Predict the 3D structure of the following.
Amino acid sequence: MISKNLTAASTKPIILGVLKQGSSYGYLIIKKIKEMSQGRMQWSDGMLYPVLHRLEKEELIRSEWIMADNARPRKYYHITEKGKQALLAERDQWLQVNSVLNAIWDIEPAN
Amino acid sequence: MFRKHRGFDHGTIREMELHLRDHIDDLISEGKTEEEAFQLAVREFGEIKPMAQEVYWSQRPISNNTIINTAMLKNYIKITVRNFMKYKFYTFVNVFGLTVGLSIVFLIGLFVNDELNFDKFHDKADDLYRVVENQYYEGQPVFPVAVTPIALGPSLLQEYPEVLAFTRVSNEDYLFESGERKILERDGIMVDEHFFDMFSFKILKGSVVGFKDKLNALILTEQLALKYFPDEGPVGKGIKLGGEEFVVSAVIQDVPKNSHLEFNFILNYENFLAENPETANNWASNRLYTYVQLSDQADLTGFNEKIKGHIKKNMENSVTDIYLQPLTDIYLGEVDFVVEVQRKGRMMYVQIFSIVAFFILLISCINFMNLSTARSAKRAKEVGLRKTIGAHRRQLIFQFLSESVILTLIAVVLSAGLVALLIPSFNQLTNKAFDLSTLFNAQSGVILVVGVLLMALITGVLAGSYPALFLSSIKPVLTLNSQVINIRQGAMLRKVLVVFQFIISVVLIIGTIAVYKQLRYIQNADLGYNKENIVYTSVGASQSKLFANKLRAQPGVVNVGLSNRHPAYVLSSSSGFEWPGQNPDENILFHFMGVDEHYMSTMQMSVIEGREFLEADTAVVMINQKAKEMMGLEDPVGKTMGSFYGEMRIVGVVSDFNFKSIHSEIEPIVIFKRSRLNRVYVKYADTHQGAIANTMKTVWDEVFPDKEFHFDFLQQDFDDLYNAEERTSQLSTYFAILAVMISCLGLFGLVSYATEQRTREIGIRKALGASVKTLFLLLTRDFTRLVLISLLVSVPLGWYAMNSWLDNFAYHTNLGVGIYILSAVAALAITFVTVSYQSIKASTSSPVKALRNQ
């Protein structure tokens, strides 16, 4: 199980990453994340929405209501150009963290 | 379940509801029951409250760079109010000082604004000019004259395409006859038809169409219309003026107080020309004001160059150049014209008052800065604590500045109220007509509000800047690790500011005394004649002798003299005199007047050579000392002088007397003995002050049964003449008193603070046996020293300033040392009284109490 803090820290790149693959709405985003993490990330569904709103405010994503004739209305989120840039930056950072960690795991215990 | 949380807006609620429905549907399709699916979906959705908060905060405007947010602002105000309550005395001193200071600035602002905007209410003000003259006489300074010949206006219009219109304006007095009443109305003018297009005096009733041809047209101001036609429409009605029938053709608004032209009724100049057709081409005598409207493309400098010699072109031997004076420059113009209009301001006063306003505001600001920095020791702890828990310096600066701005705003509101209360007295003092409704009308209301807020902001920031910068720079560690902090840094600056304040105050005291002294000097100046106990009137020249003779027989009448001029306004002048030994290249301008054989003794003028006129004298003149000097005559008595009245024998030399404003130097004058004179001057006994008017009226009614009696006191004319100075004197007295008061208030605050700080020291000294006297001296010494230092600067400064001012007067008082000693003593005494209260209080209080306090 991944800790709460780490989950929270990774929310932004994960959401941006999901949206990069294609526009989506809240419930579907959560579903995708759960599938990909195979239940190892603990999310309360509701916490997604404040994050989405914040990202929208930061202009990393934008939203629109889509009304289909025979389905429920959905609020779709799309990633913006700025969002894509942010995602790249996040990716870089996570890779760096990852490489640092990798280097650390490789160190032989000294004695 | 979402709706009770205010963080969610409608869209978010809908979005989350749909999420739950999707989830529940999915779970049901996986085989869960509806009930189970609902429970599970809600559980997985998580707690709503933190979500709502998260949404709420994320939706608020985020501005990382502003330090002003609502929460902090509330906090600032709270702390500000708390500080005000905690230090009631200092808050009072600050607010009171600022209120008084701002009120003065308000009032002076109104005054200055009004003075600067004289005559600007005319729509065409920028294109209107008055034609004025410079006359040049040998060996004399330029002689500026505001009146011009009758022929000038029409000729300018004819010859110069730049001139679009002209009007002549000549002052007239007329006897109005309405039924039984016969009243001499002054302040009438005769004008040309374009007067009404050029100037924007509003016509309320009737019309001025075809004015040029209506020779007997009369236009009344509202006030005069009401006086003569109280219950009916005056337009079309007839009224007798000077025995001639006139018809009211229009009623015009009362002349605004900020117009240099003042009048009550208007007549047609064509009427005068019709009766005196020969005067239409007169270039020789200057008798009226000429105004022109210039095309807005005209270049004033170039045009002035063109018309400069216009009078010379039309009249041989003329010594007169003309030029245009902008309408809006007339009121505050620097040139002292001869025959200037009555309503004339002085730029100097506008400047003086502006400077005074600035300094008074400065004094108030200094008080504020001094008190705030002085108190900084007390607040240093607050600053230290705030800094320790993470306040930024700029937040602290903002805190202190907002305190001072709030304080200033309070003062602004209070001073607005004070100004509203003071406006009636201020109007009386300045002879203006400010009123609240004009102050708060739409246009100027907005300007006023914006201006006031701007002023509050500037004053607040100015006054709060030093304390703000100073307090915010305090190192937290210094304030928190010691019990008593003594901040010495501010002390020097405070002293400098106090000295500065007192310099301003003392200069104002000196100024006030000087203005007062000069005014008394003018009022008591030796004019060369005695203006006291003289009452005068004017009558038909043919009956003046009879009237005078009958008056002489009355009790209380000391003497009666006749003349054709007012003794303080001898304005007729001529250079057409000849005398033996005259330098043919010299062109001397002599003033002249006519008197009878009683005039000199009535006015108590002193004859220094020869003799006064005798009843039997014919073809004789007297000259004044100045004339004797300029003519270069050793022994003028008995010599003959050629004049426009023919050959005249000089019988005497009269001691110099002032026949114009005391602002100007005495000029040469020739006094003729004439027989047909219209002005009657009556010298009465002191004891008859109250009765003289009645005595005269009795005789008047006997001699002129069908004429209205009117009279004036000569003394009153002088009071009017020096009204401007009188007003300045009064205003500057008030300002000086207030400035000194504000300074003292600040000093009082500072002394209170200093003694408060030294309570423990005083207690110990007392416990060790110091006497009250020693302690008193200890406490007063510091401040007395500051005032002494300020005297070193202010006395020379005041001396210089007031002597420059006095140079404006041809005759002025000698200030002497007394005034400086008096000012210095006054400043010291006031300081002493201010300081003593606190010092005595501190030095007589029980030492036990003093020590326990800390």
